[in-house]
Amino acid sequence: MAIFVSCTQPKKENRKVIVVHARGISYPEMQEYLTATKSDLFFKRNEKNITKLTPITNAVTISNIASFETGESPSEHGIVGHLYVKKENEKLSLVSGFSQPFETETFWEKADLKGKKVLNIGSLTLHGKYITHKNVDALSQGTQIGKPIILELKQISSNDNSLVKYRNSNDEFKIPELQNLVVYKTKDSQLIFDNDYNFDNGFVKEATLGNWFELDNNLKGKWLNKSSDSIQIYVRPQYKNKGYPKEFIQSINENIGNPTGWPNIGYYTSKKIDSKTLLEEIYSELNHIMKVFTSTSQKKEYDLIMIDYPLMDRIGHSFLGLKKSSKEIQLEYKNAFSQMDKDFNTIEAFAKKNNYDLIITSGHGFSPIHTSIDINKFLTKNSVNTNFNSKDWEAIGIPAKVSSHIYINDNLSIENKQKTLKKIEDAFSYLKYKDELVVDEIYRREDLNKIGLDHKNSGDLFVLLNPGYLFENNSNEKTFWGVPKFRGDHGYSLKHKESYGIFISKIKCHDCHSIDISKTIEKRLFTDYSSN
């Protein structure tokens, strides 16, 4: 009798992972929501799995993303700020951290190199250390074409049928529909875009007050006001899906359509649009990301799915400074958490059904802001020559939101360098706004290793502001103080409780830091969990 012995080995099994980077959820806000909510959705069910997360120092957006994805501090991955100076061949050039490749590999690039299939949705960058990737389907936030504008339609005539003609008075932004005559029908608050008074033969476009309407070329407009002599229409620019490979992007174009783009916070801050309009933009962007996740994840099996979930980052930048005094904004925060609860519930259900480990993290918290500082105007006022085009320049500050690298002219003598450093340190140490100290910490170059910012491209001084303030250029010639574009921001010192983010997962992360997450993901992806 022949005896057959099976030589089949146990099949190797590695875990699949979904990582949601929900930037901007602060740990105190999360605790506040959990205390107040009666919802039994995702957050309440996972309350015991919610951990306070320690961010890197200077957790501005791109530095935070680089540390989250590489598991390294800025001194290692090289992205030392939102903006900074790159030093090459004794030349200084201003760069955005978003445009620079990381100096170390990301966890998703390691997965790609090991043949894992990766889906990356809503990313702010399409690169890590490398520009090209073999097994990655990636969709960024999109590409903006053109710019937003407020169109002013001026009354030119009226008739006995309560119909008033308007014409576009802005010649800079030529949209075919709006170059023709516009007829305003007062009886039912409709705008009729047409080139005659005969509606029986049709019309070009119609719109109602306070609602969005479609224009050609993927443009959207919104009628903002009702006035007897003029009409304001807010027109958003075009946006296109951006990513790789091209077949993946083409599939999104065909099945989902173009993105609506990011919210226009600057127009809201300058009171060109209201909070309702801005919130519509915020949720429209989020809706596109969730549609892409639902569609693409059903059509192909991935080992790693990454979702950049922008809701709380958008809400924080737009409204946080108003939250304390506005019941309307407090309600919008509650609504935002409720939306996250629903979306994360959807993602969790997909993860369970398809055997994924789920990790949700914010990477940083959020602090309200109210005042901006033009750093180079401030330095000039304190007798520091910031004229970079002059051979006698002394120092230049790079406004990078909550912090700034300050670079001293290498051609200065050692004595003058020290004098300039001391002059700047003293000026910032005593800077106050309404009797409140503005600067939190000042570091010299040799001390940056203490906060993980010791890199060749870091400044000779690094200034970190207190919550409430940020560095931003302004056009006011009389003062270095200004009104910031954003109402909230992140990256402040870890001594402030609102700086801390969250980590949510059944995978334990004790004394969790943002740079720990990539190692946790790599362990799940690359460890063989098959039984022997």
UniProtKB/TrEMBL annotation:
Origin species: Tenacibaculum holothuriorum
InterPro entries (UniProt xref): Alkaline_phosphatase_core_sf, Phosphodiest/P_Trfase
Gene Ontology MF term list: hydrolase activity
Taxonomic path: Bacteria, Pseudomonadati, Bacteroidota, Flavobacteriia, Flavobacteriales
Name of protein: Nucleotide pyrophosphatase
